[in-house]
Structures are given as C-alpha cells and as structure tokens.
Amino acid sequence: MLIRTDPFREFDRLAQQFFGSQSPGTWSRPTPMPMDAYRDGDQYVAVFDLPGISPDAIELDVERNVLTVKAERRPVELAEGAEMQVSERPLGVFSRQLFLGETLDADRIEASYDGGVLTLTIPIAEQAKPRKIAVTASGGDRKQIDA
C-alpha cells in the first residue's frame, strides 16, 4: 500500500498557524488528517483522527486504485444571542488519498467510525496471498511447494 505524500503540507501548516485560517471563498489546500497505517495479517488497517466530525460528513470513494477520504467539519451552531469568543478549531473540508497496490481488494474495504476515529480495513486480495502448488513427480508422488 502506498501513501500519497505532499511535500508542501508542512509549509501549509506553518503558514496557517502564522497567518491564521483563511477567510471563506479564498483558495486553500485541503488539510490532511492525521493517519496511522499498519499491516495485520491478511489486511491493512488505516486509522484517521477526525474529532468533532459527524459520521454523515465523511465520504469514502475508490476510483481505480486511489482511495479518497474526505471529511467536513462544520461551524458550531450557536444559540440565539450567543457570541463566539474563541474559534481555533479548523473548519472546512479535510482530504487524504491512499494509493492502493494491485494486491489489495478495494471491493471489500470496511469502514467504522467511533469516538472521532475512522478505521478502514483493507483486505489483501485472494490472488495475492501465498498459496501451495502441488508438484507431481513422474512416479506419481505428489509434493507440496510453497509459492
């Protein structure tokens, strides 16, 4: 499994901290979400931190071998007469892309969301798993060989 890298991500993060978030309608790069990924037996697991995001604001799309995770953090709706005093949490659309290798089964990806954490389970395709091949000797004896 290959992970898309963005060499400008750190520059964007520093600029956003220094200059503050951009006003609506101005161009900005999608903010990537923190992720861990690991292999567990016959599957890969990718875990994304998405605190404060409603499950209905998360989109997962697979096109060819690219898995795109998009999430949107919307502004908090204030009660009538309330005034925002501090607004530091980033709002807007967050996006991350994973390039899936040919050995992964994109049709069987599973997703769960609990406590602000999105977990994706991506199984290894059956044809990519190791298998045994029977070899028949000319005398009729069979022997298993690991492929």
TrEMBL record:
Q: Which PROSITE patterns match?
A: SHSP
**Pfam families in the cross-refs:** HSP20
Protein family: Belongs to the small heat shock protein (HSP20) family.
Protein name as catalogued = HSP20 family protein
Q: What is the lineage of its organism?
A: Bacteria, Bacillati, Actinomycetota, Actinomycetes, Propionibacteriales
Q: Which InterPro entries match?
A: A-crystallin/Hsp20_dom, HSP20-like_chaperone, Small_HSP
Q: Which domain of life is it from?
A: Bacteria
Domain SHSP, by residue range, is: 26-138
Q: Which residues form a coiled coil?
A: none
